[in-house]
Design goal:
- This protein has about 1050 residues and is an alpha+beta fold.
- About 40% of the residues lie in helices and about 20% in strands.
- The strands form five sheets. Strands 1, 2, 3, 4, 5, 6, 7, 8 and 11 form a nine-stranded mixed sheet that branches. Strands 18, 19, 20, 21, 22, 23, 24 and 25 form an eight-stranded mixed sheet that branches. Strands 12, 13, 14, 15, 16 and 17 form a six-stranded mixed sheet that branches.
- The radius of gyration is 28 Å and the shape is globular.
- The structure holds zinc ion.
- Zinc ion binds next to helix 3 and helix 7.
Amino acid sequence: MWRCGGRQSLGVLRRLNGGSAQPRIWREKSINACEKALQYKVGEKIHGFTVNQVTSVPELFLTAVKLSHDTTGARYLHLAREDTNNLFSVQFRTTPMDSTGVPHILEHTVLCGSERYPCRDPFFKMLNRSLSTFMNAFTASDYTMYPFSTQNPKDFQNLLSVYLDATFFPCLRELDFWQEGWRLEHENPSDPQTPLTFKGVVFNEMKGAFTDNERIFSQHLQNKLLPDHTYSVISGGDPLCIPELSWEQLKQFHATHYHPSNARFFTYGSFPLEQHLKQIHEEALSRFQKIEPSTTVPAQKRWDKPREFHVTCGPDSLATNAAKQTTVSVSFLLPEITDTSEAFALSFLSSLLISGPNSPFYKALIESGLGTDFSPDVGYNGYTKDAYFSIGLQGIEEKDIPTVRDLVDKTIDEVVEKGFEDDCIEALLHKLEIQMKHQSTRFGLDLTSYIAACWNHDGDPVELLQMGNQLSKFRQCLKENPRYLQEKMKQYFQNNRHKLTLSMKPDKKYYEKQTQMETEKLQQKVKSLSQEDKQKIYEKGLELLNQQSNPTDTSCLPALKVSDIEPTMPFTELEVATAAGEVPVQYCAQPTNGIVYFRAFSSLNTLPEELRPYVPLFCSVLTKLGCGILDYRKQAQQIELKTGGMTVSPQVLCDDSHLDAYEQGVLFSSLCLDRNLPDMMHLWNEIFNNPNFEEEEHFKVLVKMAAQELSNGIPDSGHQYASVRASRTLTPAGDLEETFSGMDQVKLMKRIAETSDIKPVLRKLPRIKKHLLTCDHMRCSVNAAPQQMAQAAKELENFLQNVGRSKKERRPVRPHVVEKPVPGGSVGSSRENSSPMIRKLITDPTFKPCQMKTHFQLPFPVNYVAECVRTVPYTDPDHASLKILARLMTSKFLHTEIREKGGAYGGGAKLSYNGIFTLYSYRDPNSIETLQSFGKAVDWAKSGKFTQQDIDEAKLSVFSVVDGPVAPSNKGMNHFLFGLSDEMKQAHREQLFAVSHNQLTAVSQKYLGVGKSTHGLAILGPENAKISKDPSWLIR
Ligand SMILES: [Zn+2]
């Protein structure tokens, strides 16, 4: 995988997302991990390492221990925390000086086999031999990182061993380089008459990555703003430069960069540190001596005058308004990220400038109506050694480039003069407080990503984690100097001559030109080949095909056994009561660090059909248009001052035991600090009772942003759009899924965004409100600390008393409604038999599933392919078998066919909760051929050519998801939304344990064979001659 700039997460303030403290002690009578870590002494020697620093970081509930390795100088940071989801990562500073993608290809190739684990692809094989909660590798602009996490101590050791061996002692075989990097190969490797082409996983991945225009823009931005060293090249690889890389260069890059003296090790969680150190020293570091790695990135020389560039990209995937597709941004180089307090101040300042409708740039740019949304990478970017700030617009007319640039300058001048309102500063400080307290299940991963860039350039990661110190220092500066932020603004923005204006416009012939350049490159390569070279290419192609077709012996790899999986899962205590007479409320007491999570679900059953396509739009604007006496600006400020967010989303919730029954509705979600609950409930009260649907101008702005976001998301989520479409005609819920979250929705939003008169759409909102914002078909849930529950119940009672009820009985639009009581919450539930929670499911007895094949023609050079099959619901024992089968088909067949042989970035099979079995591919150079591979995968499954070992591996892999950690905020959600009790989940786990070889072949015959069940197909991708000729395909 490759990460460009800050695409994954923007800015320090938006990066840190709380933790996942589950105060469960993994070892009996062990003292708390944080306290134990505090007992290390500076200077203490442990397994070849020396302790350099021990720091308590109370704001994140952790203890940081910094060490260094004596003989190699390797750096080490351990964060002890009461979190069972333990994480390891190792990162190397990788600073390429060309765009051949050498660090990225190396990242892929080291995972293809190593000294102790010489089997093919141990990394992917471990996915099936482990209970890991995360395994991956990333190539950033200037470092490469290998993280994994797991809750199981044995598993941790196993994975650590594989990761250490892969990174320090990889085989780096020529064939691995061919497969993962690039190669010349006959289109059909076994037929030397077919033409030679470029193939390779990274080659295709990067071709796919650059179908995303936001990514193209980000890449140019970084290259041009930091033009003097490693940031001027594409670390992931430019498809036109990748074929310049040789196997020798790859090995050389490994020798100089993947050395302990150039490495940073990170561990996180509740497992003891000594064990990690011992293993890392013994299995890797003891075999090295110190070197002086020459990987330091020099500071970027500052410009003496601003610069300007113009670039091109591919046409918008849903080009309708060709005139408004230009992007422009103005960027400023900032100080180095290793200066943590300056970085904190500038990141804070950047958030003030761009976040929410009260920020100066939102007012000046977004509300100017010139464009659709901010330009990519807007705000503070702290991923390169020198940070930068970027601001601009996308979706503008080319002639407006100077206007936008002038608006940016004017806004900066105004801020320098006037500064910010105190309330805006308070709102942002409050947001920081919530982010520190909110717990996610991937806290370790968030932390390692958070410190990676700064640590990579020898900044102090512990200083970075001490957010409390940084905050108080910052508050002090504000207090001592009321013009503190204005002065920063003047220094780094107004007077900064290292300033870049970058604009980008689509070129209709962009992909055509890319293809042409690729063809020229290919011809040039082919021309230079001797007869002998050609023979060698043919033979290597066959050798690779042969290697891919033969199973590899994986017995060298460590593995957990099915017996290592906990036989029973922990149950969650829930209490279900009613409020305001009849509204059911689920209470789940959890250690939430002083945060209350409130949710409500409201049914859509009475909503007229013609309004349904507008529900997602209704949801996305409901909390953003103002309510009661608050206009949208004041409302946004209140939400930021008092809550950690209030969001609304459409839901299609299928039933556990009937494929044709589902619940449709809208979910309201929110969180706040304990002390702010009355204020948050007051805001919900106003939103429910007095929402404002009058602000036409602001509505237009919101619609444009939402539409732009959807269409920008297609290259990343193409496989999801394909599978939603492919399952559209398989169940009654499928049609609604397409309406809410499929390509139909993307196109509808695009149309609305471009319509000249938006009033008729705005007028639909109050009509939807009437059906939705009432108590009639509602249920609520609260997750909070036990001592907060009484207060929460009181607030809820108040809220629900005030929410309206329909005066007349509204009839459901679809007449077939089944009332289904939700089973008792848990073992602790006192009223097992009289649950007040009732789900109103819709069903259509006349529904007949049918086959549909759709091809969405999009101007991409790659495809996203999906084939969906209607199978059985969650409670059916066959569901468990199909779930294991999907995993088995992915790892034992489709991975090889679609990724290794086919060159797609990804592909596999999965069974969703709704009983739809999906075969899919992601960023795939093939389309029809991939559908044939799906067919072969089914034949393979029916033939039963897999072993008990294969089945056990698939079970481990499935359980690592089924038993994955759940954050306190999300406990009990399956019960609340889907009516799934812990007993039902445990029963499902037992079905999973019991799945046998016979059951697997039986379900593949029963459901997946041709003519057995109804299939649906969809492809997103370029024009396709074969599909166009086939009348069974619908082309959109
Ligand atoms: Zn990659």
